[in-house]
Amino acid sequence: MPGVQPRKPWGLRWRSSVWYVTAIVGLGVMTDLLVYTIVIPVLPFQLERLGYSNVSGLVGWLLFAYSAGLVLSTPPIAMFSERYNTRTWPLVMGQVILIGSQIMLMLAPTYWLMVIARIIQGISSSIIWVVGLALLCDTASESIVGRQLGIAMTGLSLGMLVGPLAGGLLYHRFGFHGPGILAIIATAADLVGRLLIIERKDAIAHGVDPAADPRADEEATVQEGPASDNDNKEEKPPAAEGTLAGLAPLPPPQTQQEQHAPAAPATPRLSLLGVVRKLATSKRALTVMLGSTIYGMSYASQEPALPLHLQAVWAFDSSKVGLIYLAGVLPTLVSSPLAGWLADTRGAEWTLSAALLLALPWFGLLSVDGPLAFFIAMFCLENFFLAATVPPLTSELAAVARQHDGIGYAHVYGAFNLSFGVGSALGPVIGGQMYDHIRRGWAAICYFSIGALFVTAVLTACFLGDRPVLARLRTLRTRRQAGVS
């Protein structure tokens, strides 16, 4: 019937809320890292069981296949999500694809099927990183987006924490099916959570805006106070100039929710080439993309060398290496949400510059041959500050999307995913070659990361933010000189 409002979905407020979306995006990130890492410690043993030799090289290509699927699928996924202004269904399809790829990997009798399964897993990973982060930015208001991204990024640490340990234990007890079944169960749970999401544009159609700032409503209520009947009789608003009695009244003023809620993003009409051109001409966007590449490269360059270094210096076996990884992941559970909060309150440019510079000493000290306790402490501090770079990077990309007409959140997070994928693909190759062909290979990897992170810190100070750090420092210096003179 005309004029009848559509029935509101059950649980509308909590299913569309910022915190529920943050939790589901964080769960998706955790599931992605769980699926990625749970098979890393067991792939060599599975390949040997299948009769293959030279398994270290074969494992390297399996890791590369995952990154290749992620990189190649990112542009079409980002363009599709923005063109059709949809987030939930791509996320749901991504989980269905991920479950299928895990079944393929778990049952694969040959190496080439395992490669295909890893490529498909990379495609699914691209969906959660591109569409999931875009969904979170759609839902959260600008004032808290950095904090929410930081909280969601703890899923990265949790996935890295659970994956390798669970994979090793389950493989020892149940064989290659053990890790695969756990990964499928985690993916299925994530799928249920995604099916319950109500996007902001759909919630607004039912009169609920999850991005509205509730503090504004509270402040307005306190300032206005309840109006009494006498107040209504004694004080009447004057008629607007030019209006006549008997004519239709003017439309009511906007509510607080309408005044403070950001407008829903319009569907971009730019082509892929147009998006690339706009991002390529933005120093701010290029700096974030470089930072994402360096982060992935610095993180991944240690992966092939760390077990060998621990084995050579302290005669560690695979179980003890897993404990070192565990020690390195725990500090990131604190640094990621802390960095997101700082990005909101102090600015992404300050937070990222500080995190990059504070990470440098620990990479250097990690190259020093000393006691095991010293190495573990330096490894923890290195990971603490390196993980703190991700929330300000992703928060700054949201600002880039708001700054450029026609650029959507899926576009910029597609660029982030592409940059990180390139870095995480090149990192193991660079680290492995350095460790194999340089006399002090582990130290060379650490020094390489120091140089790359320092260059990124300088570029961040020059170009990141509405007012970059270097520009602010110059202004402050000029003011001081003027005051002295």
UniProtKB/TrEMBL annotation:
Pfam families: MFS_1. The chain crosses the membrane at residues 17-39, 59-80, 92-113, 119-137, 149-170, 176-197, 322-343, 406-430, 442-464. One of its GO terms (molecular function) is transmembrane transporter activity. It is a multi-pass membrane protein. Residues 239-248 have a biased composition (Low complexity). InterPro entries: MFS, MFS_dom, MFS_trans_sf, MFS_Vesicular_Transporter. GO terms for cellular component: membrane. PROSITE patterns: MFS. Residues 21-469 form the Major facilitator superfamily (MFS) profile domain. It comes from the Eukaryota. Residues 209-265 are annotated as: Disordered. It is found in: Membrane. Keywords: Membrane, Transmembrane, Transmembrane helix, Transport. This is MFS general substrate transporter. It comes from Phanerochaete sordida.
